Amino acid sequence: MTDQLTDGSSTGTGGRPTIDRRRFLTAAGAGATAGIAGCLGNGGGNDDTLTLGAVYLLSGVAEQLGASSRAAAEVAVEEINEDGGIMDMEVETFFRDHGDDPQSQIRSLVQEEGADIMIGLTSSGVTLNSGPVIEQLGVPFTITDTGTPFITEADTETYGDYYDEDGTAAAVDNIFRTNANTSINCYAIARWVDENYGSATIANMGPDYAYGQQCWDYFKAYSDGLGAGHEYVESVFPELGASDMTPQINQVLDANPDLIFTSFWGGDVVTFVQQGNEQNLFDEVDDVF
Fold first, then answer.
1. Domains of the chain, with CATH numbers?
2. What are the helix and strand counts (H, E) for the chain?
3. 56 or 9: which carries more pLDDT confidence?
4. Which listed residue, 41, 64, 172, 261, has the most CB atoms within 10 A of its CB?
């Protein structure tokens, strides 16, 4: 497996062949690698390789998520190549950190490294802001990590167009996703709580930025829609990457909830669990989600 971490960026349009979503899905639905390869056009590589570009957060507070995604992709590509590749073509991979300009990294992977297909990203905000660039480049891009449901929502009539700044629907024809989004996850938790606990007193803890607030809002909205009749008590948002959550944990415990809803991820989960154990949080409540 060719595995490279590269730097550099480009801002030109590149003139690569674009792909129609219906054509790509037809080929994929038929289970035909030949059909999919045909959708990709000639690509930027040669007849012996299929180039996969990947953009993840590989540094900073979200490095754990990006590094895990990279490791999973490397394992998958290694297995594919050991099994003969795709249509006898070896898959080569190029990984990029989001960095300060993720859109330039995406452009560079397509225009300089010749990416035929792409995967990513780690941040919902980066994903939404990258939609127009991905659409322009025309290369099939599969979202694997981000939580936002908006990037695959196509109903602009109901939800408004995100890119016209009057709505949330931000779907692009050549963007796909393999992971569950925030809305789906929060609905599943809300429904499970309703079916297993009925009405309960619930507190919230989550990271202090849009994702944490959105998760809590989704959970409450779905719970209310299900008629759960919960009482929502304390809601606290430690800063992202906080080293000490003890004050917020004690604040939540003082509200005496039955359940605690959380939206932590990465290193924040480790901090929350360790310090929650120290404060006997998991013994004081019925469940933590």
1. 2-177 (3.40.50.2300), 182-288 (3.40.50.2300)
2. 11, 10
3. 56
4. 261
